[in-house]
Amino acid sequence: MPHTQFTYFAQSSLIGVWQGACVNPTSGAFEARVLVVDDEPNIIDVLRMSLEFVGFEVETAANGRNAVAYARQCRPDIILLDVMLPDFDGFEVVRRLRADGITVPVVFLTARDSSADAVKGLTAGGDDYVSKPFSLEEVVARVRAVLRRSRGEPTPPARLVVADVELDDDRRTVTRGGTLIDLSRTEYELLRYLMQNRNRVLSTSMILSHVWHFDFGGDSTVVATYVSYLRKKVDRLGTPLIHTIRGFGYTLRDTVTTG
What we know:
Helix 6 (185-196) packs across helix 7 and helix 6 (185-196) crosses helix 8 (220-233). The protein folds into two domains: 8-150, 3-Layer(aba) Sandwich (Rossmann fold), CATH 3.40.50.2300; 159-258, Winged helix-like DNA-binding domain superfamily/Winged helix DNA-binding domain (Arc Repressor Mutant, subunit A). It has helices spanning 41-53, 64-74, 90-99, 115-123, 136-150, 185-196, 204-212, 220-233, 255-258; strands at 8-9, 17-18, 33-37, 57-61, 78-82, 106-110, 128-131, 159-162, 165-168, 173-176, 179-181, 202-203, 242-245, 249-252. Mean pLDDT is 80; it is low at 1-17. The protein is an alpha/beta fold. The chain contains nine helices and 14 strands. It has a five-stranded parallel sheet with strand order 4-3-5-6-7, with helices on both faces.
């Protein structure tokens, strides 16, 4: 993992001034450069490790002043920004950056799960928000989605339909033949990946990489376990759609087109 190349000097009040120097722009070895701003060291560490693990370059700041100074000089690709900071809040960080014409996308991290805070953050110039406690998979997915939008890249369709199964990303719902299916977060992500690749055989390692974000062998039994969960919830409502291809992996077949 790359180690930080920036130094932050904090006074006892945690209100420090960033005195580091910017490195070269993110190389092709990284997906993007993320600035993580939070005053809780354990959250910083967890987010850094998780984001670096899936291919991001990560820098950090523990307060609003350092975040603004870094963003002004080094222009990260995206900022993960805690709302509650020791000097001024995350909303003020965004206001200062936007006043300077800095349009770097921002995803707020907040422990205050209320619609009022969400609206305030988005109105202040934020692009998305994640409430604490958060799933690391959700954080990575939100960061990638915001980056795609900011770069003008095409986004996956919000609604997927295979045979009589419908997945709606806007509502986070899955139905089969009009019957609502209750899925866990991981079951939902697995079904979405299978539906996005209908009629294609997906290896266990591919599924681990895309659903669990493992870029190594991983534990293949977790895939078999979750495929079994999906079959009990989805296939029980109609013709079986999820198939095991022995020695290769799994596929979701569109019975309408393949018979």
